[in-house]
Amino acid sequence: MMNAMLAALSWMDPPMRTSLLMLPLFSGLLAACAATPTPEPAPPVSCNIAPANAYVGKRADHGVTEAARKATGANSVRVLGPGDVATMDYRGDRLNIMVDGQRVITRLTCG
């Protein structure tokens, strides 16, 4: 088969012929390098908001926010006040504590 390919390409100069014959080899190598990365699995949902609802109306100091985090089973917590900027990524293992201007807890969510 290789002899037939060489005969069909005999009109080309040798460097071009070699380049053309090497093309399938390099294409295969490039395809092997371009493996699709697997996406990271989403963190397990481990935030149960019900036990933390008792903290609504309390001042969000460090002790209260940590106690609320532990009550929900969340791995992390963030406190968001009026006008605060927050990322829109969803994390099932994160407790979000919304507070008013006096840092009093108004609402709790997981995510």
Task: Tell me about this structure.
Keywords: Signal. Pfam families: Inhibitor_I78. Residues 1-34 form the signal peptide. This is Peptidase inhibitor I78 family protein. The chain is an alpha+beta fold. The protein is built from 3 helices and 3 strands; from the N terminus they run H-H-H-E-E-E. The mean pLDDT is 81.
Please outline the helices and strands.
Blueprint: H1 2-8, H2 14-33, H3 62-72, E1 76-80, E2 94-99, E3 105-110
Parallel strand pairs: 1-2
Antiparallel strand pairs: 2-3
Q: What's a concise summary of this model?
A:
This protein is α+β, with helices and mostly antiparallel strands. The chain folds into two domains: 7-33, no CATH class; 50-110, Trypsin Inhibitor V, subunit A (Trypsin Inhibitor V, Chain A, 2-Layer Sandwich).
